[in-house]
Amino acid sequence: MITQEQLTSLSKKFKTNAATVLREYLQIWFLSRLYSFTGSEEIFFKGGTALHLFFGAPRFSEDLDFTVQTEVEAFERFIKPVFKALSREEEVEFKGRKTLTGKRFLLTARPSVVNYPVFINLDFSFREKVLSPQKSIIKTQFPVLFTAYVYHLSAQEIMAEKIRAVMTRKKGRDLYDLWFLGSKGILPEERLVKEKLNYYGLAKTSKEEILKRVESFSKGDFILDLRPFVPVGEREKLGVFFEYLKDFLSKTLEISSE
Fold it and tell me: Is residue 196 part of a domain?
């Protein structure tokens, strides 16, 4: 487990609070252990936390999201001994949570370095095929040792899922993630975007409709959603950044047919 000295040092380095650092430590620890088990190559990490850990997105995240390429029953046979092994290693427990689709578990940790529990939602989806799989090495400043690759969605596939998220929910973090990917020169691929939208019956969605949806997000909701996940010094700038972000997306959100 992370020490008090390491926690204090990393909190200063990342300019955030101890709870956020602890959550990220536990996220990375969980990934390191999950992918050390045979069979984990069918579980693909995705979402905002994947953007943060693999591609350098500056915002922190609270959940771990995965797409699983096995049947639910096979996954359950795989994950139960994983949870059992991890619970023997650290002061953590895993409890199932009700969800309309997929499998959700709540990871609860009680680190000795603080006097409060830390929670992480683990969401596993079985609905779709991974279209652009990758495997990578996580480089981290946390005291966590990796011995295996982490399997994950490509940046382009995550971008396609983020576009779908913008069309199906209103969370400012999705706009933020699209801005980050666009700022790295990543363009959404038409094939991936259509495939992701098609699952929700939205395959004919146009760029104009996507941009109209972006415009419908409110500044207040954007700030409220993002504030806990950005460094302290960036929080007061979110209002101005929101206006820039919308303008940026209107000029750069071109869907490539390649």
Answer: yes
Burial 236-247 (b: 16+ CB within 10 A, else e): eebeebbeebbe
Asked if residue 213 lies in contact with residue 166, where contact means CB atoms within 8 angstroms, the answer is: yes
Tell me, rounded to whole angstroms, the distance of Cα 147 from its chain centroid: 21
Q: What is the pLDDT of residues 180-221, one digit of tens each?
A: 999 999 999 999 999 999 999 998 899 899 999 999 999 999
Which residue's structure tokens are 């209002």? 239
Three-state secondary-structure class, residue 64: strand
Q: Residue 102's domain spans which residues?
A: 4-153
Predicted confidence at residue 1, as pLDDT, reads 83
Q: Are 105 and 96 in contact (CB under 8 A)?
A: yes
Strand ranges for 6-132 from DSSP E = 43-46, 63-68, 92-97, 103-109, 118-125
Query: 70 CB contacts (<8 Å, ≥6 apart)?
Result: 42, 78, 126
Q: Are residue 168 and residue 144 in the same domain, yes or no?
A: no
**Residue among 117, 87, 101, 97 nearest 22 (CA):** 117
